[in-house]
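Exercise 7 asks you to align residues with tokens for two separate proteins.
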Amino acid sequence: MGSAHSVPAEMRELADRTGFTSEQIEHLHRRFKQLSRDQLTIRKENFDSIPDLEFNPIRGKIVHAFFDKRPIEMNMDEEQLDRFRKEKLKFLFHMYDSDHDGKITLQEYRNVVEELLSGNPHLEKDSARSIADGAMLEAASICVGQMGPDQVYEGITFEDFLKMWQGIDIETKMHVRFLNMETIAHCY
């Protein structure tokens, strides 16, 4: 009998601490149970059952992001939210900066674009290369401005990357949909 009263109290406490509604917390709990297969933790292999990730060419990098050991703070003020946004962008930056030298070179960017577009049978490798080259030229124009004819853009630094993402709502762009609607219906 005592446990029946503790669940709503626990739910209210979670809602107060996180800012989520009790319905959102219940929904997240159902999704967690489905993904973890009723275990207490989610393991990397649990991500194998997510249809949206199955054919994603950067699947390994996305799954790795969920097991990143950085702490996440709750109840953040504007400064902390800005810091969290920068950390999210830093993670994304490192997905492109494969040699971890602090710059995304044209070749690194080409590799990622080719990887992302590899599943499209209508695009040839040269098309992916052209897309990457065009995007890198655009990055140079945003970050450096007008370049002289002898000037070479060596790559996108993290500061350049921040400039490029300024004004873009990454919170809605960087997410993974864990369940399709049919799966959610089975969780009830």
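Second protein for Exercise 7:
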Amino acid sequence: MAPLRGPKAGMEEPGAGSAPRRFTWEEIGLRTGRGHPQQERWLVIDRKVYDISQFYRRHPGGARVISSYAGQDATDPFQAFHIDKGLVRKYMSSLQIGELALDQPSFEPTKNKLLVEDFRELHTTVESMGLLKPNHLFFFLLLLHILMLDVTGWFVLWYFGTSLVPFLISTVLLTISQSQAGFLQHDLGHLSVFSSTKWNHLVHEFVMSHLKGLSAQWWTLHHSQHHAKPNCFHKDPDISMHPSLFALGKILSVELGMKKKKFMPYNHQHKYFFVTMPLLVVPVFQLYSLYFIFQRKLWRELAWTLTYFIRFFFFFEPLLGVMGVLGFLLLLNVLESILFTWISQLNHIPMHIDYDNNMDWFSTQLQATCNVDQSLFNDWLTGHLNFQIEHHLFPRMPRHNYWKVTPLVKSLCAKHGIEYQSKPLLTGFGDILRSLKDSGELWLDAYLHE
């Protein structure tokens, strides 16, 4: 351990005046919140060292998001997640305890210097091209088409009756409406619809809570963790089904087998996937979201969520009856869950899954994400999340600009020998099952042998 440059971490030496304290990456790397020194959490942004040990629980974006970068350089995620960086830096000033020593690089020496600098130059280019600025008409038309699908789904049942054909047509329309509303709330949660954080949050509550009956704050806290460290075990909640339900990734599956742990018959997980995640994700989200709202006392979100259920019962109870409405609501949740799970998992489950190895932002995102080939249908069906690579590199970028930055991202990948994966939609669906089968077989082989 390198000696601390002062009598105590975060304190200035007597007589040092206003001169900043200087730290090495070795010192910073020890402050992860684990081990010794116990519970200290430091991170670096633009060469400035911040002690977040007391602040991380009050972080507006969530304690786990900021803690995932404790002991590391957080410059790139800071740039990626925040709109008004000047305002944020103003509040961060009280957390600053010093700067990197003059002989220290601006980021960990283990990272690819040229790649980090090239990506930061790309980020500057993206901003100068105006690719982070939203087209409000685009998002208004998205909202309008969601509302039209919703109204049409009800109108079909009201006008044509509840026989099989109108019921099926209504079910399809309402499922698509819910799916598309999910993608729009995703845009709002990433602050990519308005230039104002406040307006993104307000409209996010309307779309997520009133149109879908879910908590906007819960989704934002959960999803931000995924973006901070995608496919990093213990840091990305989207892979928390390992090992309770699935064995994910080659490295983690082999480790699980070598430890002789078996919570499920993982060698059959590509078969039971069909009757687990796709059927359960959204219904479980619905229940946990309500729990989260009451736990955090989010009364405004509760009011919006209640209007979702009241509206649904008001329009459909006269047509279907009480039990029919409850069954219909469950059916729509399950159908949306199937659609959501297959679309969301094809970009990540087949990719590299491991512990956090503190890689640079560009490499972290590229190894954990892949794209689905661009087409008007794929763009619409997936809410433009077929551009998953671009979305992960620039999470605040409005989706209508993903295609514009794609050539620049591909060029950077080619320059540094990093694979840029894009595949047909059906191939992506198949890769989910293939990757589950492969990791299940790796687990079984390690489980049965010494």
